[in-house]
Structure formats: C-alpha cells, structure tokens
Amino acid sequence: MTDSAHPGSALELEGVTRVYGSTGTEVRALDGVTLRLPPGSFTAVMGPSGSGKSTLLNCAAGLDRPTEGSVTVQGRSLAGLSDDQLTRFRRAHLGFVFQAFNLLPYLTAYQNVELPLRLAGRRVDRRAVVEALAEVSIDGRAHHLPAELSGGQQQRVAVARAMVARPAVLFADEPTGALDSVAARAVLDLLRQAADRRGQTIVMVTHDPVAAARADSVVFLADGRLVGTMAAPTADAVAGQLAHLGELTAVSR
C-alpha cells in the first residue's frame, strides 16, 4: 500500500499494538494506538515510565515493527518493507534527536552533521551543512570535536544533523533531558522553528511539562494506551493532566 487513507496526515498510526515476550510472560508495550498527525505539526508524547512512549516513537519511525496495526509516513506504509528498505526510507524522510546526543566523538561538529548525507550516498552540499550549523548557532565551532563542546552545544549539533537532509518527520526522544534550562529552551526553539518555518512534523517524547507546552498538542499514554490529548497546552495544564492519568486510564478501559 502506498497511499494513506488520510492523505492529509504526515504520520499515521492505525491500531498499533506491540507485544514483547511469549504467551504467559507477554508485555503489551502498545495497545491499539491510533494517531494521525498533520504536516508541520509539533506533538509532544507524555506518560509515566513504562507507558509506551519510546515504543510508540520506535514503531512510528520504523525502528521497531508493530505486532498488529499499521504505520504510514508521508503516504507510504511501512508494512512489508525489508530492513534495507526501511533503512533507506528513514535516511530519506526521517530525522532523529536523542537525549544522549549520539555524536561520533572522533568527528568534528561539521563532520557529524554531514554524516547522514554520506550514509545516504548523497552528494554532500557543503553550503547545506554550513547553513544547518548556522541555524543552530554552532557555525563558529564547526571544527571542534564533541568533547570540546558543552552539552547544549552538542545537542544543537545533533539537531543540525537531524535537519540537514530536511526530513519530513523529525523524532525527538527526551531531547532536553540532559540540558540546563537555557540550553533546553534553545533546543525547543529550534524544534518549534522547524515546524513553523519549514513545515516539518515534530514528534517529541518528553517528561517535562514546560517542554511539552512548546508543542501544538500533547498526547498522553498510560499502560500502552492513548488515554488523552490536549491542544494548545500550557505547562500547568499538562502537569495537571499528568497528575490525573490514572483516572483517564480507568475511563479508557
């Protein structure tokens, strides 16, 4: 299948379930999650530890395969793609930012940012790499190794690396979790700009209500289920919703 049933969606999960383990010891990390995100949207995914946040991210990004249900990205179903096809699809259409930065320590900031282009076999456009570094205000330290950069600077390099190929969907897993408040705000500004200025779809897993408040909407998970959504979130409203997830979980069953 190459056409989504909802052509306005940049990312679509339909009844996605992910089960780990065997009968008697199985764990349902996701349980029938349906979610549709339009292009240019910024969505935060929240829930307690073990709620299925990272599993949802991994299934949506094609890093893990659902036990049941389907995932469609940019109108392309991920079902049936081989591992090699999934790898090529991710390189062409998806970007990733992680809490641990995941920069290669022996490569400079410039070399880390150009790496996705090289891995994809694309001609490296030096101007595109320089522009990506300038967008995150790291162009002055392009030839420094990660160990010579602060945590906030390393994360901005990671954001530039994720964005250099202009992916349609960018997944961020706790991107501010290891940063102080100033550095975290700078990274969130970059993600917000990616959605607003370039129309990229951002999916961010976070535990921080302040970070979630920068998104257009928040989806709440508990026990692998989608138990609530919030449009135009504020930090206080998100914190209040998190405090009552147990009640939402009971209603959803």
Quick summary of this structure?
With 253 residues, this protein is an alpha/beta fold.
What does this structure look like?
It is a single chain. With 253 residues, the protein is of the alpha/beta class. It has nine helices and ten strands. It has a domain of 65 residues. The strands form two sheets. Strands 6-7-8-3-9-10 form a six-stranded mixed β-sheet, sandwiched between helices. Strands 2-1-4-5 form a four-stranded antiparallel β-sheet, with helices on one face. Helix 3 runs parallel beside helix 5 and helix 5 packs parallel to helix 6. The N terminus is likely disordered.
Question: What tags apply to this protein structure?
Answer:
four-stranded antiparallel β-sheet, 10 strands, 9 helices, disordered N terminus, ABC_transpr_LolD-like, alpha/beta, six-stranded mixed β-sheet
Blueprint (SSEs and pairs):
Layout: E1 11-20, E2 27-37, E3 42-46, H1 53-60, E4 68-73, E5 76-77, H2 83-93, E6 94-98, H3 109-119, H4 126-135, H5 151-163, E7 169-173, H6 181-198, E8 201-205, H7 209-212, E9 217-222, E10 225-231, H8 235-243, H9 245-252
Parallel strand pairs: 3-8, 3-9, 6-7, 7-8
Antiparallel strand pairs: 1-2, 1-4, 4-5, 9-10
Helix pairs in contact: 3-4, 3-5, 4-5, 5-6
